Protein 1
Amino acid sequence: MERYSEYKDSGVQWLGEIPSHWKTVPFKRIIENRKVGSWGAGPQEKEFNCVCLRIADFDYSKLRFKRVSNYTIRSYSSKDFVDRILKKGDILIEKSGGGEKTPVGRAVVYDLDISNAMYANFMEKIKLKGLVSPFFCIYYLSALYSSRVVWKYVKFTTGIQNIDMAAFIRNEKLVFPPKEEQNAIVSYLDTKCSRIETLLSNKEKEITLLQEMKQRIIANAVTRGLNPNVKFKSTNIPWLPEIPEHWEEKRLSTKFTGDIEANKNFEYKHAFKFNYGELVPKNEVGNPEEYKDVYVKYSLIKKGDVLINGLNLNYDFVSQRVACAPAGGIITSAYVVCRPRQGVNYDYYTLLFKAMDNMKLFHGMGTGIRLTLSFKELKKQLLPVPPLSEQHAIVSYITERTSKINSLIEKLNKEIECIKEYKQRLISDVVTGQIKVS
């Protein structure tokens, strides 16, 4: 690709040389004003009861917001309400994240002519002076974040990371060309990124289809067995009208116990958390002793325990809520722990529960306003029970079939990561002047 004819030192360590006619200015000199999103509940006043729009969340792979959703304002003072109104061209920066691997500082330009749009908590609103296009600034911020410069300003508090935006704006610089060239760069990157996003979307659809195929294989095997010629009989299981004739149906309590002890002696100092159908180490920052008061109340789990996240069943229809403990440890007592009794193939029941989760069957088992699931409710559920030898055969079959699908999904995920890296490299090269846009 074409480069500019002359370059100069930018004076910015992470950037190096830039085209000789580009300018470098501190961020603080191009910002007209900035407003911080409120943390927690707003003042308890009822001056406003109008329907507004707010930024719902960010798409990790895009530079614009993912969606806008209805939001009723009921408890904001007039000043707080006015301060958080968005205008076209305002930049929003999401300045908090969930852990060390979660990107922070994702930014969007508000690009709608809607006077009652409002931004959410944990974001900062920035209005630029006319010197720099907000859309060029967004692409530049994307390049800056990818260079990891922003990590100098990230602070960790009990596992949550937040950008110190005041320090960031005070110390960092922006490199930019004349306004006409900024607009050309934005137009070029919009076109290129749109094509890349289409390619990414197609690969993500392939992954979705493979995941659906995997779910069908699991569901069929754990509820109908492996013999296509087997005779079936009707059941008393509400969600499963028939099972193979030689299978039994029994309450969950005959296969699992819910008698789980707490980590009262602080035997385990590190906890697990749910991550899309798996248990992974929880993000922890600081001295383990700082977590003692909380972790002594966590549940002790053993390898082979089947866990179900039964919280907020009426809100979340996406997360995979079933996981099998890979080792001994602890997890919040808010989750349901099913400990297998003697002679139970926990791998079979993990797969069965995952199939039930994919069918969203647990959502109808919770109680209370938030539909929270407990072992007390779960233990009453009837389950299909194949002979133990057949459970082993079903697990082996599913493992073999799904391993091939998992390999294809892994390959597609690697391709997606390569495409994302290419996209980020392209953005960085263009907005820092390493590539000339014709």
Protein 2
Amino acid sequence: MLEGLTPKTKEALCFLMKKATDELSKEDLQVLLDALADNRWSMNGLAEALSERGFHVTRGVLQKHKNKVCACVR
């Protein structure tokens, strides 16, 4: 009766990456990752540019992922 009993696994993606993998194409996901790695972008500027293109996230969500303090690295 209890064979195969295992704990639930938690998905190791933060809100940003979960949203990105759900909503963006592979190519657009790579553009997002490249933009996050590009220090010329401010997080406010990137959030605004993404919103203008229909991908709505906040500066804080972007900053958490960029600073590696999100669920992706836990």
